[in-house]
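Would you kindly consider the sequence and fold I have copied below?
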Amino acid sequence: MLKLLWLIPALPLAGFLVLALCGGRLFRWQVAWVGCGSVGMAAVTTALVGVDFFRAFPDRASYRQTLWNWIDTSGMTVGVTWYLDALSFLMVAVITGIGFLIHLYSVEYMSGTGEADGSAPAGEAATKPSTSAASAVDAVAVAIARSRREPSARRITSARSRVDRDCGQAQPALRQYP
């Protein structure tokens, strides 16, 4: 299982690439599965690598996996190598484990926005008027995301009018524009 060490950073990277390249064409549930799935699989891979690493721990304090040699000339070798010891494993386990929980929480948190069946495209979201600063910031982000689909001449005006409409009850200081 130690040979799977390279998958720990590769899985979230692959999830990022899928979402960056075609995330706007996917439905919300598909985006959630790709996002949570890639980080979740990295967390499971971390656990599998950790079990195998700590079985041989007293005999082997670290593990090196060379993916390829970049430069190999006259006695000097520079390679792309992953290095795993107990401290680096602890950090990887914390990052992938907590990262997976954050992804799960964010999917559940955002599930109440948009269409009830989750069929709305990933870039769309619904906002509710509120007096909190966080909701005002969310409304600005949603207005900007919505304005991407409109002709460029109306983007700024459209975004500001949506913020005014969505945050009409916000405090006056929050509705001022630079």
The two ends are 55 Å apart (CA to CA). Residues 125-135 have pLDDT under 50 and may be disordered. The chain is about 55% helix and 10% strand.
